[in-house]
Amino acid sequence: MTAGRALYGRRAECEVLDRLLSEVKQGRGATVVLCGESGVGKTALLDYLAEKASALRTYRVSGVESEIELAYASLQQLCAPMLDRLDRLPEPQRDALRGAFGLDERAPPDRLLVGLATLTLLSEVAADRPLLCLVDDFQWLDRASAQALAFAARRLVADPIGLVFAVRLHDDGYQQNDSEYRPGEIELAGLPELVVGGLGDRDARSLLASVAPGPLDERVRDRILAEARGNPLALLELPGEPTPPELAGGYDLPGSRPPISRTSRIERGYLRRVDGLAPQTRQLLLVAAAEPLGDPALLRRAASGLALPADAAAPAEAAGLITVGTRVRFAHPLVRSAVYRSAAPAQRRQAHLALAEATDRLTDPDRRAWHLAAATAVPEESVAQDLEHSAQRAKSRGGAAAAAAFLQRAAELTPDLRRRGERALAAAQAAGEAGAPAAANDLLAMAQLSPLDRLQQARCERLRAQLVFYRSRGSDAPDLLLQAAQRLAPLDAAMARETYLEALLAAMCTGAGQPEPEVGVRAVAAAARTVPVEPGSQQAADLLLDGLSTQFTQGFPQAVPTLRRALEVAGAGHTGLTLVCLACSLVAMELWEDTAWLNLLEREVRVARQTGTLSMLPVALDYLASYHIQAGDFTAAAAFNDESVTLDAAIRVSPPPYSPLMLAAWRGDQQTTAQLTRFGIQDASPRGEGSALVLTEYAAAVLDNGLGHYSSALAAAERAITGDVLVARSWTLTELVEAAARDGRRDVGEQALEQLAERTQASGTQWALGSEARSRALLSEGPPAEDLYREAIDRFGHCRMNAHLARAHLVYGEWLRRENRRQDAREHLHRAHDMLTAMGAAAFGERARNELLATGEAVRKRSADTVSDLTPQEALIASLARDGRTNHEIGAELFLSPRTVEWHLRKVFTKLAINSRRDLREAALDTKLNGAR
């Protein structure tokens, strides 16, 4: 790869890296992701950067495969030299990092807060000297560390920080296996990439000539070049593999050996050099390969425990295989993997045992337990217990995936078959929570090989049904959950009722908009009522099941008191991000309880992020996005949708189709709405997911009402109110009334209003009664209509539903214009136009503009992008600064570094022609900042 300090064939790559260094030296943040196969030269490019960055403060870390399940292990390794700056961070961020690194006993850290704390810490370190962080083998970083570093990378703007990630590509992507989660693939998506390919023919020939052990037979040279395909490490290592006679005579005969991958050949080249070392040096290399931290003190203690001489590493250093300094570092990651993979199992166990004995059981019990497990060949209960304790600690630090890994290994090492089944079942549960359904199914299979009792077998059946629902929300989920509930009923009544609730929700999801299926909501509701419950139970799951069962057997008004009590109980305590929590959020929507809806979901999403419980997080984020759509904060809704999409891809669950489609419809985006509708129908139809089909009709009704296509809106709304899906019926009834009123179908509108009023009167919230008043006004005339329009505006003004407040102003303004009260109409139409345009509801905003034109008002056509010269982020930062927030406080709220906040504020000052924060308070910012929050 190199000749002296030069890199063969890497001029273009070096120019990119030089530009990155220049950006950082000039005080700007920069990121690049080096992507390439094993041996292509990513590490050499990192070496080049490190050498060129002598004026920068440089830190370097490498991911290690054996650490991939230990939450925040790699981040702690990178940040260890920076922890003297920890006290400079805002207290919540400081506590988050201390909790993530296990420096003290704290509540599980919020993962987003850890990411922000990482960004702030890097910013603090870079304050007096530009900073460069180099991360090799990103694909082997533990997931929590990868998320935190990628979070920071996406927010580098005005900080002199460079982040360079090297990630190994294989034939099918970022990682070599076909696991559910491919480290790096999701976290690094969208960051600037530099694909490092093979060398061109001329450079490959030059590099080969520089390392060949003498003249090469032409056939040998061509064979090496063909096999290496420009891979520099292959070119460096392959020539040394054959014997000199083979090199002279043709290298190897085609077909005389089974094909060997380039990586295997490269590793074999390293192994030849290892094989030439003394046994004690080889043993030391194996210990170093099994120890991912690169801690020389730990390596020395382990070597002493094996009675290895103090200078055992010297021959390996002389051979260029390893460097032992302040860190233990292999010449290339493939050296480590070659040493470790080639060792006999007994040798690996010996190395791990030495490391376990050299690791302090008090300061690092989890790594000690992991090494001890790797050293154990036969089941051993004491080791399994240590792993079980490590799983508990991992989960408390936000490592649900780590907890699953610890529990899986604990199960494998459990001698008692019954106890093994219990641990495997617990591991399956943790894997399901972590968003790894395939791993959870494998662990369930392991559990079911053990002599489980009836309750454990029923729990297995329940978890398998849950996984089906989480992953696909298909039509088979209700039946599977119902069977599990019925099996649990005589064994654990409380768990059975929870499972009946899950079956009921699954039935609502799959049966909406379709004829009553064999396992529909009424069948599940009837079955659920056969399970006894403790009299006076105040458990959220019990109340929800009773309320929903009542709704589907007796009617909505009869269910409201019980459902409202369920919300109160859920709001008073932590239910966890389970189907119970999501059912509560659905009920909050159904009852038009906007405050309870937001508070419940925000809390549970925060806890899910903290604990790494990801299986239900995409659905919760989808519901949160739905809230913000109704509240008129389309920017927040889009942000939650983006996060949900990222998580969907990471954990391989079927993405919820709801809020992205609703957002496009509310925005009046016909093309996106049509595309998402086609995708939703194509995706949901094979699974029989009726709720998705119903919500496409609701979205169509919203879109067409915004565009003024009232006949189409009416038809879509009528299709949407079939079935027993929650929420869509209530929301769609308001769309149906408006479409019917505008389309001259008063009879249809009055029927819908009757159904709507039954629900709104039972609810009694400002949102509900405002919706009823607006709908009733649309079907009224004269003074009663005006009173109802004013009532709707007043009620919406006392809740958070700004999108509905804006539409109330719109329909009132339209009515006033038709009443020939132009001046009064202009007031409300201007208000509607400003609000709708600011939030991005383009079609409804255009409706308001057209009405204003009809009053004789000259109105400039605007969009959300032209309301202000400020970007949405600049407007939000300006708004917070105007309210007296400091840069640190704004950064904490918006997940930006304080320096980046200051950079944005300077742009705001320039655009607004002001000089200071004081000027922000005096500037006429209302029209610029309305809707920013």
List keywords for this structure.
five-stranded parallel beta sheet, two-stranded antiparallel sheet, 64% helix, mainly alpha, 933 residues, Rossmann fold, 47 helices
Task: Tell me what you see in this structure.
By secondary structure, the chain is mainly α. It is 64% helix and 4% strand. It is built from 47 helices and nine strands. It is globular. Residues 1-5, 171-181, 240-260, 512-518, 649-653, 863-868 and 924-933 have low confidence and may be disordered.
Quantity of strands, as a count: 9
* Alpha carbon gyration radius: 32 Å
CATH class descriptor name of the domain at 2-195 = Alpha Beta
Question: What is the beta-strand fraction?
Answer: under 5%
Average pLDDT over all residues = 81
Query: Could you name the CATH topology of the domain at 2-195?
Result: Rossmann fold
The total of helices stands at: 47
Can you tell me the CATH superfamily of the domain at 2-195? P-loop containing nucleotide triphosphate hydrolases
Outline: globular
Brief synopsis:
Helix content is 64%, strand content 4%.
Please give the structural blueprint.
Blueprint: E1 2-3, E2 6-7, H1 11-25, E3 30-36, H2 42-52, E4 57-62, H3 73-79, H4 91-100, H5 111-125, E5 131-136, H6 143-153, E6 161-168, E7 193-195, H7 201-211, H8 218-228, H9 232-237, H10 244-249, H11 262-275, H12 279-290, H13 296-305, H14 314-318, E8 322-324, E9 328-330, H15 333-342, H16 345-358, H17 365-374, H18 381-396, H19 400-412, H20 417-433, H21 437-447, H22 454-472, H23 477-488, H24 493-511, H25 521-528, H26 540-553, H27 556-572, H28 579-590, H29 594-611, H30 617-630, H31 634-651, H32 658-667, H33 670-684, H34 690-707, H35 710-720, H36 728-742, H37 746-763, H38 766-778, H39 782-797, H40 802-818, H41 822-839, H42 842-854, H43 872-882, H44 887-894, H45 898-912, H46 917-922, H47 926-929
Parallel strand pairs: 3-6, 3-7, 4-5, 5-6
Antiparallel strand pairs: 1-2, 8-9
Helix pairs in contact: 1-2, 3-6, 4-5, 5-6, 11-15, 12-15, 12-16, 13-16, 16-17, 17-18, 18-19, 19-20, 20-21, 20-22, 21-22, 22-23, 23-24, 24-25, 24-26, 25-26, 26-27, 27-28, 27-37, 28-29, 28-30, 29-30, 30-31, 30-32, 31-32, 32-33, 32-34, 33-34, 34-35, 34-36, 34-42, 35-36, 36-37, 36-38, 37-38, 38-39, ...
